[in-house]
Design goal:
Elements (H helix, E strand, L loop, with lengths): L15 H8 L3 E10 L4 E4 L5 E8 L1 E6 L3 E6 L3 E4 L5 E4 L7 E2 H9 L16 E9 L7 H4 L5 E3 L8 H15 L5 H23 L10 H6 L3 H9 L8 H7 L4 H12 L3 H19 L4 H7 L5 H12 L3 H10 L1
Parallel strand pairs: 2-8
Antiparallel strand pairs: 1-9, 2-7, 3-6, 3-9, 4-5, 4-7, 6-10
Helix pairs in contact: 1-7, 4-5, 8-9, 10-11, 10-13, 11-12
C-alpha cells in the first residue's frame, strides 16, 4: 500500500455541514455507560442540551409524551438534538426515576439499577451522552434541528461500522485509561455527525414544512451554493455569483434559497461572515484587520461598528474574553 503523503497537498474543500459544526462549536460528550438490571426507568426532563442513548446490548422502551411507546433493541440509537423530554425504561409500565438524580448518581459511579450478582434480571447496557453548542450564535441549522432521531439497527446494516465504534466507546467509558477522554469525545462527535447525516439522507422533504436547513444541505443546487459559501476565504461571493455557479438566475436562486433556508441568500451570506468572524475572534490569534477583511470590511472601525450592531458586543471584548479564559 502506498502511504506517501505530499507535504504541499491542497486541503480538501470543507462542506457546509462541517463548517457549521466547527463554527458553532458543536461538541458531544458521553457521560455514562452502565448495565441496568430490571426493573429500571429514567424520566428525562426538557434540557438545554441535546441528549442521546445507544443500546449497546439488550432492549428497552422509549416513552414520548403520554402514549407513544417505542421499543429499542441492541444497536439502536436515539437522540434528542433539542433536548426534548422523554422516558426510557426496561418496560413501558416501569417506574421512572428523575433523570437529574440518576445522572448525578451515575457520575459518582453509583448505579441505582445495578445488577444483582446472584440473580441478574434482563440486563440492558445503555450508553448516554449530550450535545452542546455555542449558544451566543444563531443559525438556521440550529433552528431546524429535529426534535427526535431514531436509527434502527435492523434498518441500517450499512452503519455496522458505527456500532463497532460505539462498542469501543462503551469500553473506554467503562474502563478509562490514558487518553480515554480524548477517544471518548472524538467518537461521540463522530456519532453526532453520523446521526445528522443519516437524518438528512432519510428525511422526506415534505416533512420540512417549507423551510428546512437540513433538507437544503441535501438539495443539489442550494446544497452546492451552501458549500461555496462555507468555503469562502475572502468576502468575494455575491448572490449573482452563487446563482450562476448552480446554473440558476438570480431571481430563481433567491426564491429557492429563501424558501428552503428561511432567509434570503444575501442575508445568510452576511450573517455567516459575521458569525465566522466572532468565532475567529474567540478562538484564534488572527489580526483584527484580517478578520474584518474576511467579513467584507475594509477597515477595523467599520467592522467594529457592524459587529457591535450584530452581536451587541465589540470585537475587542470578544477577544479579551478569550484571553481571560
Amino acid at each position: 500500500m502506498n502511504c506517501n503523503i505530499t507535504a504541499n497537498r491542497t486541503p480538501e474543500p470543507m462542506d457546509a455541514l462541517a463548517d457549521i459544526l466547527k463554527t458553532l462549536r458543536i461538541s458531544a460528550k458521553t457521560f455514562s455507560c452502565n448495565d441496568f438490571s430490571s426493573p429500571w426507568g429514567i424520566q428525562v426532563d426538557k434540557s438545554e442540551t441535546g441528549l442521546f442513548h445507544v443500546i449497546i446490548s439488550g432492549s428497552c422502551w422509549l416513552t414520548l409524551g403520554k402514549d407513544k411507546k417505542i421499543r429499542l433493541d441492541t444497536g439502536d440509537i436515539v437522540a434528542f438534538p433539542t433536548g426534548g423530554s422523554h422516558g426510557i425504561s426496561d418496560m413501558p409500565e416501569s417506574e421512572r426515576l428523575p433523570g437529574d438524580k440518576v445522572v448525578a448518581q451515575l457520575l459518582k459511579q453509583q448505579n441505582p439499577f445495578s445488577c444483582c450478582e446472584q440473580k441478574p434480571n434482563n440486563i440492558t447496557s445503555l450508553m448516554c451522552g449530550s450535545f452542546t453548542h455555542d449558544t451566543s450564535l444563531n443559525h438556521p441549522f440550529l433552528r431546524d434541528l429535529p426534535c427526535f432521531i431514531h436509527i434502527k439497527a435492523v434498518e441500517t446494516p450499512e452503519l455496522e461500522w458505527l456500532r463497532m465504534l460505539m462498542k469501543v466507546l462503551a469500553c473506554e467509558s467503562r474502563t478509562p485509561s490514558p487518553g480515554s477522554s480524548v477517544i471518548i469525545d472524538r467518537l461521540t462527535e463522530v456519532l453526532f455527525i453520523q446521526l445528522l447525516r443519516t437524518h438528512i439522507k432519510n428525511s422526506p422533504k415534505e416533512n420540512c414544512n417549507n423551510t428546512c436547513y437540513l433538507s437544503a444541505l441535501n438539495d443539489p443546487q442550494i446544497g452546492q451554493a451552501l458549500n461555496l459559501i462555507h468555503n469562502e476565504n475572502k468576502a468575494i461571493l455575491t448572490v449573482e455569483k452563487l446563482g450562476s455557479s448552480v446554473a440558476m438566475s438570480r431571481t430563481a436562486f433567491t426564491d429557492k434559497f429563501s424558501k428552503l433556508i428561511g432567509i434570503p441568500p444575501k442575508t445568510y451570506l452576511l450573517n455567516w461572515r459575521m458569525q465566522k468572524a466572532k468565532t475567529k475572534l474567540a478562538t484564534s490569534q488572527e489580526q483584527m484587520f484580517t478578520i474584518a477583511q474576511y467579513a467584507g470590511y475594509s477597515s477595523e472601525a467599520a467592522f467594529s461598528k457592524a459587529f457591535k450592531h450584530f452581536f451587541n458586543i465589540t470585537p475587542g471584548k470578544v477577544r479579551k474574553q478569550r484571553l481571560a479564559s
